[in-house]
Write a structure and sequence with these properties.
7-stranded antiparallel β-sheet
Amino acid sequence: MTLRITIDIFSGRPNPVIELRGKDARDALQRFAPARKLRSDERRPIPPSTLGYRGLVVEQIGTRARNLPQPVRVANGDLFGPGLAHRAADPDFEDFICGSTGPLRRLKLGARFPELIRKEIARLLELRYRYPWKKWPWPLINRCRCAPLYEPAWWNVPARQPHNNCYNYGTNYRTDTFAQPGRAAGAMYTALTCAAVRPAAIADQLIDSPGANNKCPAEGHLAALVVWPGTDFHWYRKGRNGYWSHKPGSTAVTNVDNSGNLIADPRTADRGGYTDFCTFLVVMHGHVKIN
């Protein structure tokens, strides 16, 4: 059998994927086997479409264990899936996979990545217990007549959601290629910094607008670029109702930040590790070309 383990962490870049086979797969399966049901006070879901680490997604390829649904998400030692809310046999399964001596090292993501994952696992646990599980009001603020409508249902379907990332959503341009800034123009970014990703997006015909100050353009719509230094990039877009929304990687479109608050200004939103606000950019409809 084969286990495909996706580290669900990035927004702009494709997530790292590890495949374990044979004995390695069987050993891992024993570690994250369901041990006991979570008590009611432990059943803290993973906040939807948060920025940063969102757990491990484990898929069984070929022969499958009967006691596990497909797929299973592992977060802070808890297992979630259809009909599944259990504690893993090894609550430190994520450390086993992502630690400096674990299978993650095969991907050669850099010496600092295991420590980054360790901090992100701790951040996710804290977030799960403080996230405000409630409905949000929708007071109108500055309307943007040319901006796209907030229509998450269009993006959040199997044919589109996994194949389009934050850049696709930020530009309102479906490509099904997990689009990368600059790739269509032959000028793809070479570093995960504002200074590298911004000109790559400009090469795709986005218009750099650092003085926009969160105000709607007369034509097109406003997007915003942020960076997790050396790790990833992320995009937001301003909607017709004046609020911002985004799509973290292959996850669902959302209109809230990491604290569960509506986003009036991405500069002040809870962005997790994406600490560098780079710039506002204007997307002129029909002019932008991404891939």
